[in-house]
Design brief:
Number of domains: 2
Number of helices: 5
Largest sheet: none
Number of strands: 0
Strand content: under 5%
Amino acid sequence: MDLVQVAVDALASGLDSPALRLLAGERSGTPYRELDFLFEKAADELGCGGIDVEKATFIVARDITARIVSGELTEAEGGRRIYQEVYLRRPWAPRPTTCGLS
């Protein structure tokens, strides 16, 4: 789940703020580091200040692992989601390289 989907889900559940609306309107799959300002602003507007993108990334990872344990996701699907939605999108992530191989 990316931050844009989190914002869409939050709006659908009844939460609302100007920054949350802007975040929900961004392109899905946008890297966290490009959305962190909007996310943190929305959190502040909703009274949830102190949640930054790094913490949110770990919350997403915890949610995915809980879904694996509950059987909602297979281990393979959960692992793929953690890799794609958490590992590759974390703001401090070094990008994978090919080590000079083509």
